[in-house]
Amino acid sequence: ADKGSSDAKNIVNIVSRIGGMGNLIGLQRENMAALAATLDEVKIPAEVAGTAISSMFTKLSTADTLGAKAEEAFSQLGLSGEFMKKALNRNSQEAINILLSRIKTLDKESQIGVITNIFGNDSGTIRAMATLVNGYDRYQELLKMTNSEEKKGSMDKELINKCETTASILKILGNNISALAIKFSDALLPVVKLVASGFSFVIDIVDTLLSKFPVLSTIVATATTVFLLAKP
């Protein structure tokens, strides 16, 4: 994140948006950063990039239930929804590589058709996925870079900077809770909503305290950052 045409803060912004779902599918933080950097290099906004990558994670984790159009699209790639779901559970990075590299072999018109049938009609998502497909070679280069020992250290530094404000920490917490809700069955969603309501009440109290006692904000931010970075 120190070199190249990507902006480190933008990359961390995107990673913070996709981190919850990325963790659930077992994708390493460095690999999330490579996805983020690939899109940031062509100046796709963090919000659009985050939505597109999260959509990819979600769709692939439920690939066997996406319907006839998606199954036909997978078939064009010599794949199936069931295969992609199992591949994601086995090795999320390998599954992403398989999908993107297979789409890349198609002509441009067919690429858009496959992307649309799997990921939907959102223009931002289509643009982001097309960028990952056609920039696949660059994406592979960035994967090697972000997984080098030097780059792992720089990612940690940027995450520390990102987590210095309480608002950023609570945003990351919210993203993780949202990702968990996607994975839960409908039967458990009422419980999740109840827990989320409890979090909202607690957060309101914390926000009031931090407004009145600014020094406390620094203490909370530091402690939470250490906790987040200590997680595997």
TrEMBL record:
<protein>
    <submittedName>
        <fullName>Phage tail tape measure protein</fullName>
    </submittedName>
</protein>
<feature type="domain" description="Phage tail tape measure protein">
    <location>
        <begin position="1"/>
        <end position="120"/>
    </location>
</feature>
<dbReference type="InterPro" id="IPR010090">
    <property type="entry name" value="Phage_tape_meas"/>
</dbReference>
<dbReference type="Pfam" id="PF10145">
    <property type="entry name" value="PhageMin_Tail"/>
</dbReference>
<keyword id="KW-1188">Viral release from host cell</keyword>
